[in-house]
């Protein structure tokens, strides 16, 4: 999996080939084929691995006292996964090729984050899930074309991520006001 991840980051999901994964891992093509059956299987396994690692980073991250800082820590881990680890490209490729149905751990991952990080924030599970949906959508967009779009608009690097964070901050602040009765 580590060899496949390196190739993914270097070449992108469309360039991943079973033969290259086997060579990079130092195993036979037949071994990779036996474990994953196809390059689609390798891509889905990579995405599931990235999801597990992301959930672990979010759940293991320090828990600052300020609600704002807690949201930012989780959002940073999410955005980093989609921007730096090739996660956005892989997720988009899986969607475009109809392979997202292979991702069996997404629902469980969302539920773990809700139970492990958001339940004690006083946000009901449905609203927490909605915030996760929006956060992932924003992180995907930033990871896929945020830097390019900012550059095309003559904006500084990191602008798209900052605007997305501002949007999430405002949403979380509104949720806190709703759950605390305006306090």
The total beta strand count reads 0
Can you give the mean pLDDT? 84
Helix-strand pattern, N to C?
HHHHHHHHH
As for the number of domains, it is 1
User: What's the number of helices?
Assistant: 9
CATH topology tier name: Tetracycline Repressor, domain 2
What portion of residues is helical?
A: over 70%
Please outline the major beta sheet: none
Name of the CATH architecture: Orthogonal Bundle
Tell me the name of the CATH homologous superfamily. Tetracycline Repressor, domain 2
Bin the strand percentage. Answer: under 5%
CATH class: Mainly Alpha
Give the class from helix and strand content and strand pairing: mainly alpha
Q: Which residue ranges are poorly predicted, with pLDDT under 50 across at least 5 consecutive positions? A: none
CA distance, first residue to last residue: 48 Å
Task: Give the overall shape, derived from the CA principal axes.
Answer: globular
Radius of gyration: 18 Å
Can you put this structure into words, describing what you see?
The chain is mainly α and 183 residues long. It has one domain: Tetracycline Repressor, domain 2 (Orthogonal Bundle), CATH 1.10.357. The protein has helices at residues 2-11, 18-25, 29-36, 39-60, 67-84, 87-96, 106-118, 125-152, 159-179. The longest helix has 28 residues, at 125-152. The mean pLDDT is 84.
Key features?
75% helix; 9 helices; Tetracycline Repressor, domain 2; 183 residues; mainly alpha
Blueprint of the fold:
Blueprint: H1 2-11, H2 18-25, H3 29-36, H4 39-60, H5 67-84, H6 87-96, H7 106-118, H8 125-152, H9 159-179
């Amino acid at each position: 999996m580590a060899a496949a991840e390196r190739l993914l980051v270097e070449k992108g999901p469309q360039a991943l080939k079973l033969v290259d994964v086997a060579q990079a891992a130092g195993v036979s093509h037949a071994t990779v084929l036996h474990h994953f059956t196809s390059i689609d299987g390798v891509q889905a396994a990579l995405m599931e691995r990235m999801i597990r690692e992301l959930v672990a980073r979010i759940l293991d991250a320090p828990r600052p006292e300020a609600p704002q800082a807690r949201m930012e820590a989780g959002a940073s881990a999410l955005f980093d996964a989609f921007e730096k680890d090739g996660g956005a490209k892989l997720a988009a490729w899986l969607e475009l090729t109809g392979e997202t149905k292979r991702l069996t751990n997404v629902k469980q991952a969302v539920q773990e984050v809700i139970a492990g990080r958001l339940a004690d924030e006083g946000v009901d599970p449905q609203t927490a899930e909605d915030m996760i949906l929006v956060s992932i959508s924003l992180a995907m967009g930033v990871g896929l074309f945020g830097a390019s779009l900012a550059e095309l608009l003559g904006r500084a690097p990191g602008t798209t991520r900052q605007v997305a964070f501002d949007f999430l901050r405002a949403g979380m602040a509104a949720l806190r006001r709703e759950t605390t009765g305006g306090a």
